[in-house]
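[Q] Does anyone have a clean structure-token version of this?
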Amino acid sequence: MAEQSVRWGILATGGIAASFAADLVDLPDAEIVAVASRSRESARAFAERFGVTRAYGDWESLAADPDIDVVYVATPHSAHRAAAGLCLTAGRNVLCEKAFTLNLRQAEELVALAKEHDRFLMEAMWMYCNPLVRRLTALVADGAIGEVRTVQADFGLAGPFPPAHRLRNPALGGGALLDLGVYPVSFAQLLLGEPDEVAARAVLSDEGVDLQTGALLSWESGALASVHCSIVGGTGVTASVTGSRGRIDIPSGFFHPDRFVVHRDGHDPEEFTADPADGPRTSLRHEAEEVMRALRAGEKESPLVPLTGSLAVMRTLDAIRERIGVRYPGEARGEAVATVTG
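[A] Here you go.
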């Protein structure tokens, strides 16, 4: 028996919104009902491209549309608090792109709004929904490599990006950390939870955003995570998890891998590969499917991407920004100060 179709609204019309819409179109139990942009022309062009019947030139109309079950918020993260908050207040369920918000305070406000209005809310951390990442996480949890000692992960783009680019614009939450560094940090915390101490260094642009950042996260257990992000140098986008009895290497694209290799002490290396039935490694379908599963089950958050985990990642990102001296327009002094020590 076919599942009842889940009706989606898409807020914003940029590249990630187009990628998500393309994957939704291929899901038989998903329907894109409406799209919104602050530009009516952009909304109409997007709607025509994906066969969407309603195109709104403002966010409020989308949020008020009663035919929408859930809104995918795909704006720059500087607008996540406003856009997702508008939709939650209007009674819509929300899948919000990452980084979840600019800072922890904004993230806590969204979580509070979701609870106040009894709505579903999830950060679009698609890595957590990836089948191969879930397989890796299960192996680690089952003790395949013993107790986790270290995690290493990097994500860097070669650039160069001009000063006018959104990645260099403080008003849009620019810099490497929130756009790219959220992945290595989220990967480390997926395996080890929230760190007890944070240390970080960065190279800043003339605009005051981080061009590249390195952070060392540590836990009272003795575990360490080394994470790096950059918008001035292309990295291998690799990750490695070392335990007391072995190691797991992801040789490329760690947040959407096509394979990883398990090295167990005393055993030959074992390679795990993605199932072709799961679609391309760049597919966003898995996070969409998780949202729809949760909505049908009446859940208000996803166990794969729990809100407590998203808040914990925001605390770490705030702590890193405090260490490297990055503050965005409108943030009060001390806004990004986290409770993490170090």
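[Q] Thanks! Anything notable?
[A] DSSP finds ten helices and 14 strands in the chain.
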